[in-house]
Design brief:
homodimer, about 120 residues, alpha+beta, Arc Repressor Mutant, subunit A, 3-stranded antiparallel sheet, 6 helices, DNA-binding
Chain lengths: ~120, ~120
DNA sequence: CATCAATATTGACAGCCGTCGATTCCGGGG
DNA sequence: CCCCGGAATCGACGGCTGTCAATATTGATG
């Protein structure tokens, strides 16, 4: 029932930042598949806004009720947050009536390093 | 006919790196829409591999013939490269029979800064 | 000009995806 | 125990998207 925990992507990607910068060597097929899931998760305007709202919120964490006003219905917001969670970009935690989402800094930093200014 | 030049996204995003780091403040709707196009472009495994192959190629530039072997048909490769171009992530240039793609470093660096290690 | 090699475009099609309304699940109070 | 509010799930639907085969375009070369 309560599958608040998700996929192995997080374990793999978070623990091992995954890959060398894109400018250094081509991605392997498996790496490309795992990373594409994350980029795809950020590839929707609403989801990107939700992610930025969580990331910029006090302590890098926000209650759903704080970020719900993005112009789509409540089920859609929930759907998008689930996608972000499945991609390993955020985690969720229930506290009483509310559910709080927070960013996974290692993963986003890893993505940044992938694109980042090379040497 | 020859619309090798594309959308204003590049002009806007490349010239002005766009936004503060995601962890600092929420994206505006227009910013989110423009950025989502780029993330979406990287959100396909084949496209991500193509991008990494271009980025890691000698001089950050590659002939289509050099990166064509990604397991999909030639038209599909062409289609994906067009998407990357439309997203402002790469530019293309014809030299004789061949077409060369190169990354737009300012844009990718801008994306990296967006996700980057915050203060 | 005819032909060939390298890319791009077109048209078609199946599957995915964002969206919603309705419903369900989960905790907290009366 | 019942009800209420916050959030997730379900089912449906239209539009987008990745893919291919076929064809067109473009430039080099004989």
């Amino acid at each position: 029932m309560s599958n608040l925990r998700e996929l192995p992507i997080l374990e793999t990607a978070a623990t091992a930042p995954c890959c060398a910068p894109l400018a250094r060597e081509p991605l392997t097929v498996p790496d490309a598949e795992r990373l594409a899931v994350m980029f795809k998760a950020l590839g929707d305007p609403v989801r990107l806004r939700l992610f930025s709202m969580v990331a910029s919120h006090e302590g890098g964490e926000a209650c759903v009720c704080d970020i719900q006003d993005v112009g789509v219905s409540q089920p859609t917001v929930s759907h998008h947050l689930k996608k972000l969670r499945e991609a390993g970009l955020v985690t969720s935690e229930r506290r009483g009536t509310w559910v709080f989402y927070k960013v996974v800094p290692e993963v986003t930093a890893s993505l940044a390093g992938l694109l980042g200014q090379e040497g």
